[in-house]
Write a structure and sequence with these properties.
alpha+beta; Cytidine Deaminase, domain 2; globular; disordered N terminus
Length: 111
């Protein structure tokens, strides 16, 4: 799946990821979706929206590692929509709200 310049493509995390019962050994669906997009040619800043759908007893926002990866592939104003199938609730945050003061590539630039 090669992306043409300027082309946006939906990466279906359900096809790219499965959660693992052994949490320390797993890679979350959000990071797998970003990795699949990167393999398809996505660059930092190319993620334009994120939707997380879970069937859980409470909302399922991205973990800290996923927030970091999202902050490197999505601008701070990109919306992350979180939908819970168990109770039908939907919330939304921006990447910047989920990870304020994110550490990123600019922090590694030499002076």
């Amino acid at each position: 799946m090669k992306l043409a310049a300027g082309q946006l493509e939906l990466i279906d995390a359900a096809k790219a990821a499965r959660e693992n019962a052994s949490y320390p050994l797993s890679v979350c669906a959000e990071r797998n979706a970003v990795a699949a997009a990167a393999v398809a040619g996505a660059q930092p800043g190319d993620v334009r929206a994120v939707a997380i759908v879970a069937h859980a007893s409470s909302p399922a926002p991205p973990c800290g590692a996923c927030r970091q990866v999202l902050s490197e592939f999505a601008d701070p104003d990109v919306v992350v929509v979180i939908h819970n199938l168990a109770d039908g609730s939907t919330t939304a945050f921006t990447v910047g709200e989920l990870l304020p003061q994110a550490f990123g590539p600019d922090n590694l630039a030499s002076s």
